[in-house]
Structure formats: structure tokens, C-alpha cells
Amino acid sequence: MAALLLLGFASGLPLLLIGTTLKAWMTEEQVDLGAIGWFSLASLPYSFKFLWSPFLDRFTLPFLGRRRGWLILMQIALMVAIAFMAFQQPKQALQLLAINAIVIAFLSATQDIAADAYRTDVLTELEMGVGAAVFILGYRVALLIAGSLGLILADRMPWSSVYLLMAGMMVIGIFGCLFAPEPRQISPPASLAEAVILPFGEFFQRKGVIQALLILVFITLYKLGDALLSNMATPFLLTVGFTKTDIGAIQVGMGLIATIVGALVGGVILSKIGINRSLWVFGVLQALSNFAYFILAQPQFAQNYQLLVVTINIENFCGGLGTAAFVAFLMSLCNQRFSATQYALLSSLMAVSRDILAAPSGSIAKSTGWSTFFLITIVAAVPGLLLLPVFAPWNHKPITIPRPGLEDEEDDVWGRN
Question: How far is the C-alpha of 111 from the C-alpha of 71, rounded, in Å?
């Protein structure tokens, strides 16, 4: 669990440095709002990481084992790429900034492939809820550092110094990787062709084509409402008059703490009621929490700090609940022999909503206004919830989500109702 905490930190650190923190920098440099919204496309590698994930299943580097070798290589490369971001100029060279962000996204996505596979391989079935929550805890602490601390520091020092400092933070992940326990050995695919074909074939054979396709659509849509809101939350708060320090301390700082608490609470609740019902309950709360931003967008509540605190805490706590259930659900779908490829495929689809489907959010907000935009984010969460009855029904009959390799599927508590 300690190793997962540190690896989660390394996994989360790059995300806001090409996301919220970078968008705050771009907003301060008066980059067009539409361009800021479309800049989420720089994170496309997160959506397509399944394309190169078979390499990590098939090939093992000659140091630190099947998963940790790839982890430490990506962490060192990320340290260099994030440091290079410190020398960018958003207003004068937006294209070069985008290329740098894409490189960071590619390295970070590759690190995530190895980290997710490591987590899936090292955890036993009964550890999944807690393991997911602990990894998310490390992930969110990193977001707290890259987001809250980064924005607060940006009010007091140049952006270049902020990014150099964040690059140095990657040493925490390197330390965690060096001391992480090695998971039990599982024979890798015999060839690259086998590493590409078998994971997808095994998943569809195990689930059935129709149900497998519906699961993939569900994964794409489950957090769409959250993705739309998150993409525009920082520009919205800056637009209505909150300062970078306000955003760093309240939206990013307090919000990430609320997310951490939500993820930990979600992990505990999940162990009691199972994945099925957790997806239902947490998904509904996740969608309804966006209504708090709708209230904050009303003119009579302009720069209302008390309401901002309430809004941030509600939205992020409910988002943390949903993430805990979602990560445990994704892990439950993977065969450990192909965990890098299968988890990468599933989490790539989750990134589709965050990076591709949410890309027009800036244009939508500009054309509809903030109030209507936040209502749209609530409606966007509904299609994913409508798919839950197909593969995660809420009923009194035990529904199992079998873990490959279990000798007795009756012992699989992850579909327990």
C-alpha cells in the first residue's frame, strides 16, 4: 500500500501540469478561451495508450522487473520533459507549448500503463477496494501539489520556476518505484502479435460481444459530465473574479482534499455494498453534484467565498466516490496476464470523455453561458447511468464480476450486492 501511494503520486503529478495549471497560465497570458478548451486535445495520448500497451505486456526491460523497469524509465523522462515546459511562452509559441504538452502526456500515459498493470498484478481480490483508494490518495496528493501549490506559487514567482520545482517532484515516484515490491511472476505473451491480439479476444470472449461493447460505451460515458465541468472549472472561476490564490487554495487545494476523502470513503463503502451498487449510488451523486456549480454561476452569488467552498467540497467529494468505484470496476475486468493492455484499453476509453468529448466545452460555455453549461454537464452524465442495468443491475440476486484466475467464483465478492 505504501508503494501504491508513492506510485499514485508519480502518476498524478503530470496531469494538471498540462491541464488545470497550464490553463491558468494560458488564461493569465490572455490566450483565447476557445483555444484553452481545445487544448485538452494535447492529452490525447491518455486516450490512445492502449495502442502501445502491448509492448509493456510483451517486453521486460533488463532492470527492476516486468512493470517497475518501465515505471522508472518513464519517471526519469517525465522529469526532463516537465523541466523543459518551464521555458515555454504560451502567448508567443502556442504550438511549441502544445508539442511539449503532448510529449508529457505520452510519457505520463506510458507510466500509467505500467502503474495500472502493477497495481492490478500486485493486489489480491480482497485488497482491490482499499488498493484503489490508496493509489487515488497518492494521485490526488500529487494533483494537490501540481494544482493548489502550483497556482499559489505562481502568484509569487515566475511560471518557469513553478514548473522546474514540479519536475523535481518526480523523484518521489522514482523512490517509490525502487522500493516497491515485485508482483508474483506471470508468464508474458510469447510474441508481440500475441500481446496485441489475445488481450482483446480474451476480454470479448469472456464477456460476450454485446455486453463487452456496452461495458466499453459505459466506461466512455460514466464520467463525461465530470469531464465537461472539470475542463472549464478554472476558466469559469477566473472569469467571475476569483484570484489564482483563491483557486489554488480552495478549488484545487480544498477540492483535492475533498476528492481524497471521497475516494477513501468510497473504498470503504464499496467493500460493504459491492461494485454494482457503488456504481449506481456514486454515479448519481457524481452527476447531481454539478448542480452546485450552476448555483455558483448565478449573478447574485458572484465572488461568494462561502458558496465556493461548499460547491468545491460537494462536487469533489462526490467525484472521489465515483472514481473509487470506477477504478475498482476497471481492475475487476482485467486478466492479469494481459493487465497492461486490458487496463490501458479500458482507462483509455475513460480518457476519451476527459480529453476528446470534453474538448468542445470551452466553445459550449462561450455560446450558452455558464449557467446553461453547468446544466448540460448534469444531462451529459445520464447516458452512462442508463447502461448500468445491463451489466451491473441493482437487485437482491448476487451478481458476480469474476476475476480471471479465481478457483472458486463464489468467493468473488466484487459483484456482491
Answer: 5
Give the residue among 358, 147, 118, 156 at the shortest CA–CA distance from 251.
147
What is the block-wise mean pLDDT of the chain (417 residues), using blocks of 10 residues? Answer: 88 85 79 72 79 79 80 92 86 80 91 84 69 80 82 84 90 86 69 73 79 84 83 81 74 76 83 81 88 84 81 87 83 74 76 72 82 88 85 56 43 40
Residue 71 C-alpha from the chain's centroid: 17
Cell 470513503 sits on residue: 265
Residue with C-alpha cell 493569465?
A: 28
Contacts of 158 (CB under 8 A, 6+ apart): none
CATH code of the domain made up of 2-182+191-415? 1.20.1250.20
286 close to 322: Cβ distance less than 8 angstroms: yes
Question: Where are the chain's structural domains?
Answer: 2-182+191-415
CB 69 within 8 A of CB 63: yes
Amino acid 188: pLDDT: 64
Alpha-carbon distance values, 152 to 2, 243, 301, 380 (Å) = 28, 10, 24, 32
Q: Return the number of other C-beta atoms located less than 10 Å from residue 83's C-beta.
A: 17
CA-to-CA distance for 328 and 205, rounded, in angstroms?
21
Q: What is the pLDDT of residue 412?
A: 41
Q: How far is Cα 147 from Cα 387, in angstroms, rounded to an integer?
A: 33
